[in-house]
Amino acid sequence: MFEKFNDTARATILMAKDIAVYYGRDHISTGHLLLAVIGHPAAEPRWRNWQGTTPNTAAVITALGTTPEAIIDQTVPALTFGTGSKPGHLPFTPNMKQALEFALRSSMTLGDNHIGPEHLLAGLARTVDLSAGIILARLGITDLKVHAAIQDSTPAPAPTAARICNVYLPVGKSIFKNGAKIYPDLGSAQAAHPGVEIAPFAFQLHDGEFFDVCTLYPKRSSWGKFASYPDAFAAALELKDTAGSGLQIHIMVPTVTEMTGKNSRGHDVVLGRSADYTSIRMMTRLLTDHPDVEKLAAK
Questions:
Q1: Partners of 252 in the beta sheet?
Q2: Pairing of strands 247-262, 163-170
Q3: Interior CA angle at 239 toward 234 and 240, to 5°?
Q4: Given CB 3.0 to 4.6 Å as the disulfide criterion, which of 82, 149, 197, 233 pairs with 24?
Q5: What are the C-alpha distances in Å from 111 to residues 19, 94, 140, 182, 253?
Q6: Which CA distances in Å does 33 have to 9, 116, 273?
């Protein structure tokens, strides 16, 4: 799970530990994490220049109709001081582990390939029977509302727009065949197939589709979303040594699901929409066939 944490989420976990130390606890709880996600500074020198919550999380909190100060005012009185924390590693409480698992599920539900502080907030909001979840519930914040706020506060990325994409391949070869030798530009195709006629191929990407650089074995792992095939191809070449063999490029297709709930009058309302990217359309390209990969491997 932690390999999916972005740098800000990792810093948030470290801050949660320092908050736990400040309160003299020998464990990291959901309340400590909630303060870290919101950006409440701990009594540690390294956080003296902390500028508060990240822009992404701040935008989510604003979309939820509240403020970091309001959440802090609810959270701080709920925390108690302990007798002193042990030096070194502080374990997560079982409740904290559950919140992190929920954060992972939120990231997957939203179609993201990372876990950020905003996903941690969604995970905490889902722990309705735990301290952080109870605090957020008092403010009317649920995990589904956090999901909707993430989507509302995040500008639509370039890969969501319908568009035409050109690739190049030897004449007579099919772009629809697994392992087809597809190239991002004419030069790389000609270099890989000297003396062979190369032709462009234009295909339509539908709304919400994007190129995914991924590995399939031993399990499928995504390495990024890209709006164009050349961008995905370049990223895959850079990742070749890190990702190992079997690195491929797919076109991912979203399956959109509406999340519903009740408003204050008990009426059904749409709280947000999630995109689940589990379907692959067309094209699987094994990069190990490309000569540049051999050059990279030889370095």
A1: 210, 280
A2: unpaired
A3: 100
A4: 82
A5: 31, 26, 25, 26, 11
A6: 10, 13, 26
Q: What share of the chain is helix, strand, coil (3-state, %, to 5)?
A: 45, 25, 35
What would the pLDDT profile of 7-60 be if each residue is shown by its tens digit? 888 888 988 888 888 888 888 999 999 998 988 766 555 555 555 556 678 888
- Tell me which CATH homologous superfamily contains domain 2-153: Clp, N-terminal domain (1.10.1780.10)
Share of the chain above pLDDT 90, in %: 9
Q: For tokens 């919101």, what's the residue?
A: 38
Output the CA torsion 61→67→68→70 (10° steps).
-130
Cα atoms in the 13 Å half-sphere on the side-chain side of 170: 12
Q: In 3D, which of 206, 205, 248 has the Cα closest to residue 223?
A: 248
pLDDT at residue 248, as a whole number: 77
Exposure letters 160-181 (e unless 16+ CB within 10 A, then b) = beeeebebbbbeebeeeeeebb
φ and ψ at residue 30, rounded to 5 degrees: -65, -30
Reported as a single tens digit per residue, the pLDDT across 228-264 is 788 888 877 777 665 555 677 878 777 766 667 666 6
Question: Where along the chain do its domains lie?
Answer: 2-153, 159-298
Q: Is the peptide bond before 87 cis (omega within 30 degrees of 0)?
A: no
